[in-house]
Give the backbone structure.
Amino acid sequence: MGPVCTVGYQGSTVPAVLDALREARVELLVDIRAVASSRRPGFAKTALAANVATIGVEYLHLRGLGTPAEGRAAARAGKHAEMRKIFLSHLATEEAQAQLENLASLIREGRRVCLLCFEADAAHCHRTLVANALAKKLGVEIIHLAPQSDD
C-alpha cells in the first residue's frame, strides 16, 4: 500500500491542486466534505469531478466522512478543539465507520488516494483525523499536499 495524501484547496486554484495531485501520482480523489459545494470556482462536486478527470484522476464523494454542521461552525469560529471533539464523535457513528471501511478497502486494493477538504492547514482540518484513522487501521504513511497558494 502506498501513502494516503490529503489536500485542502483554501487559497489555491484548480490548476495548482491538479498539479499537486499529478505530482503525488494520485489515482482517486476522495472528497470528504459534508457539503460538496464551494464558492471557489471549480471546486463544487460536479466541476471538481470533471477537473480531476482531465488528469486521469477519479472522484469519489464520501459525505459520511464530512464534518457535521456544528463542527463546521466551530471550525469557522477558530474553535479547533471543539471541531475535533465533534468530528471524532461523528467518526464513531455507524455511517462514518462504514464509509471509512469502504475507503480502507480501496486503499488495500492499491489505489493511490488523496482526501480533499477546504481548510488549507491540515492541522486544523478533519481530513487529518480521517487520515489518522486510516493510518491506524492500515499502517499507511500520510502525506499532506500543499498546492501553491494564489495569494
Remarks:
- The radius of gyration is 14 Å.
- The chain has six helices and five strands.
